[in-house]
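Is this the right way to post structure tokens for a design question? Let me know if I should format differently. Anyway, here goes:
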């Protein structure tokens, strides 16, 4: 029996790495992609098939798809879009180019990959495309404007694609994690230091008392309800292997609680609650 195949992005660490390793152990043919060549070399040394895929580089996306087609003989059972990053900072301090860069990595590259994979799935008559969103795909939060914007957009694009693909056997699914153990916060420092001139901001005192502390104080970097990456992998397995997968899978208590608050609280109350976060 031929192994089921999956292309996973953002596999250098965190959710991508855990899901790639777990699915490999479950017998899937896993193509674990990373932005950096050295991360791919490390994964290959661990026994995974790995090559470069950088959402901000269209040529690398096309190259990765061609490699998958060559290795599988023209088929692919599933795609798991996962790689993303944030540039923390107040919306009023976000340069246009910073926002553009975030959208390139967190949305446009995902879309580019999806539209190149869909013809493969159409030809074989089935497939599953799973996009890893976030609780911030339906809940806004201070200091996270660029990331929130990309995840809101991703959810809208994914919901629309799911409706459009109802006349096919290609399932479109969202995962919505809350706080997950990863290098996400550490990686966001890079974007923050590159783009946000917080010392010149009207909110400089707030940066100093709130955001700077959150980013650089290692003793504060674990969220109260944080779960390991394996919590997302468990939901991914359900999305991949259940006969009738749900359209959305929430992960972590904050995601469930946030959905309830967003639905039932009046906007002024909800805004007041979120302004304390």
């Amino acid at each position: 029996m031929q192994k089921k195949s999956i292309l996973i992005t953002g596999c250098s660490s965190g959710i991508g790495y855990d899901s790639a390793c777990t699915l490999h152990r479950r017998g899937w043919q896993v193509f674990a992609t990373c932005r950096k060549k050295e991360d791919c070399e490390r994964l290959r040394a661990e026994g995974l098939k790995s090559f470069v895929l950088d959402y901000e580089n269209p040529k690398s996306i096309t190259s990765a798809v061609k490699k998958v087609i060559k290795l599988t003989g023209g088929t692919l059972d599933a795609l798991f879009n996962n790689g993303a990053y944030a540039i923390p900072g107040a919306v009023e301090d976000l340069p246009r180019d910073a926002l553009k860069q975030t959208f390139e990595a967190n949305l446009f590259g995902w879309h580019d990959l999806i539209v190149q994979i869909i013809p493969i799935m159409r030809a074989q008559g089935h497939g599953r495309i799973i996009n890893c969103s976030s609780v911030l795909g339906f809940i806004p939060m201070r200091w996270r404007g660029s990331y929130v914007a990309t995840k809101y957009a991703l959810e809208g694009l994914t919901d629309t694609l799911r409706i459009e693909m109802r006349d096919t056997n290609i399932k479109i699914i969202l995962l919505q994690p809350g706080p997950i153990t990863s290098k996400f916060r550490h990686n966001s420092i890079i974007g923050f230091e590159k783009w946000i001139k917080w010392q010149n901001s009207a909110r400089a005192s707030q940066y100093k008392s709130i955001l700077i502390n959150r980013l650089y104080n290692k003793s504060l970097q674990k969220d109260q309800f944080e779960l390991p990456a394996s919590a997302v992998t468990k939901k991914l397995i359900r999305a991949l292997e259940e006969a009738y997968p749900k359209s959305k899978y929430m992960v972590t208590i904050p995601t469930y609680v946030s959905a309830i608050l967003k639905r039932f609280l009046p906007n002024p109350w909800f805004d007041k609650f979120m302004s304390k976060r």
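Format looks fine. Someone answered above. Worth noting: Residues 56 and 104 are 6 Å apart (CA to CA). The domain at 5-274 is CATH 3.40.50.720 (Rossmann fold).
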